[in-house]
Every structure is written in structure tokens, then in C-alpha cells.
Specification:
The protein is mainly α and 89 residues long. The chain has helices spanning 3-42, 51-87. The radius of gyration is 19 Å and the shape is elongated.
Length: 89
């Protein structure tokens, strides 16, 4: 196994991780910004107010983007398993 092969495997793995982690993180970030703007405008400084909408948004994004995330992970694992015979050399 060459250094280029290892770097390609690492790059593909990191891209897969980013593609799978991005939807829930972006949804949580967007909801957090909206809630913080709402808290600033209304002068409500309740720290627990931000948690429930974020949790709901992340759960909804997991339900919505779950099939995409699962297919991305399965494609990566299938590519990795198909490449095993060439990596053992």
C-alpha cells in the first residue's frame, strides 16, 4: 500500500464524514442563530430556550437527511470493501 493510497482513503473517509455530519450541524446552527436573534429582540435571556428547538431541528434533519447519510456511508463502505484486494498487496 503506497502513501498515495493511504491519503486517498483518508480523504474519502473525511469527505464522507463531512457529508454525513453537515446536515444536522447546519440545521442546529441555523436554529441556534434564529433563537438567539429572537432572544435578543425580545430580551428573553433564558438559556434553556435554545436547547429544545435545536434538539427538534437536529432530530428532524436526521429524519429528513437520514436516507442520504445512510446511502453515503454505504457507498463509502462498498468502495472500501471492493478495494480491499488491491490494498493487501
Amino acid at each position: 500500500m503506497t502513501q498515495d493510497t493511504v491519503l486517498d482513503l483518508m480523504r474519502d473517509g473525511l469527505m464522507t464524514i463531512m457529508l454525513c455530519a453537515a446536515p444536522p450541524l447546519i440545521m442546529g446552527l441555523a436554529v441556534g442563530i434564529v433563537v438567539s436573534i429572537f432572544q435578543t429582540v425580545t430580551s428573553i435571556q433564558e438559556p434553556t430556550l435554545a436547547f429544545v428547538p435545536k434538539i427538534v431541528a437536529v432530530l428532524l434533519s436526521l429524519i429528513l437527511f437520514g436516507p442520504f447519510m445512510l446511502s453515503t456511508l454505504t457507498d463509502y463502505v462498498n468502495r472500501l470493501m471492493a478495494a480491499v484486494p488491491t490494498l493487501i498487496q
